[in-house]
Design goal:
This protein is α+β, with helices and mostly antiparallel strands and 57 residues long. It has one helix at residues 10-17, and strands at residues 28-29, 36-37, 48-49, 52-53. The termini are far apart. The longest helix has 8 residues, at 10-17. Strand 3 (48-49) and strand 4 form a beta hairpin. The protein has a two-stranded antiparallel sheet. A two-stranded antiparallel ribbon has the order 3-4. It has a domain at 26-57.
Length: 57
């Protein structure tokens, strides 16, 4: 099993961890009501998916 030969400094550790970023949630406009929604998902405002009514809202 690999074991580090020297202890990594706090600044090196934090510099490496600074690259861990969360990506922003991608949203698209609903073609029916133009509200933002997740892609490939039912619109929670109007209840449509691929221009078909699938939820009673």
């Amino acid at each position: 099993m690999a074991v580090p030969k020297r202890r990594m400094s706090r600044s090196n550790t934090r510099s490496r961890r600074a690259q861990w970023k969360a990506t922003a949630v991608a949203t698209v406009a609903c073609p029916q009501c133009r509200s933002p929604k997740l892609p490939h998902a039912v619109c929670q405002v109007c209840g449509t998916y691929k221009r078909r009514q699938v939820l009673e809202v």
